[in-house]
Design a protein that fits this description.
There is one protein chain. It is elongated and about 55 Å long. The protein has about 150 residues and is an alpha+beta fold. The chain has one domain: TonB (TolA/TonB C-terminal domain). The strands form 2 sheets. It has a 5-stranded mixed β-sheet, covered by helices on one side.
Length: about 150
């Protein structure tokens, strides 16, 4: 079986975006059919303690492209990372009219504090939610104490 470049790119992205235990068991939000998915990243600066939800509304045209993206709420730093991710999403085409959907991105810090980079885990929830999870960062003051 010959893999085409888009399929190979998608598989590679999914493998490097999360470990095998982190691959979502549910469908994408609101039952959407995604043909291209860019995982949202947890902002490195936000690992210091910023959590929150970002709600976004957008339309999917007949060709599977998003249009009319509108952020409905959330922290401005997290909003930018959601916008960056959505720009890379493509949906299954179908229907002659644009479909409107609202998705909530839930940014959460879980686990032990670390002073090194940890991968972002992305999980789809059944209620149009995309959970974006990583470990919180250890405060910089702890790093200074270690060096003394």
């Amino acid at each position: 079986m010959k893999l085409t470049y888009p399929v190979l790119a998608l598989v590679t992205t999914l493998l490097f975006a999360s470990s095998s235990r982190d691959i979502p068991e549910t469908h994408p939000p609101a039952g959407l059919c995604l043909t291209r998915f860019i995982a949202p990243q947890y902002p490195p600066v936000a690992r210091g303690g910023l959590e929150g939800d970002v709600r976004v509304k957008f339309k999917i045209d007949a060709n599977g492209k998003w249009t009319d993206v509108e952020i409905l709420g959330g922290h401005p730093m997290l909003q930018q990372f959601v916008e960056d991710a959505i720009q890379g999403w493509r949906f299954c085409s179908g229907g002659s009219e644009a479909r409107e959907t609202v998705v909530t991105f839930a940014f959460r810090l879980e686990g032990d504090r670390t002073d090194y980079w940890t991968p972002t885990r992305v999980e789809f929830g059944p209620d149009s939610t995309v959970r974006v999870v990583t470990n919180p960062a250890r405060p910089v003051t702890d790093w200074v104490k270690k060096k003394k």
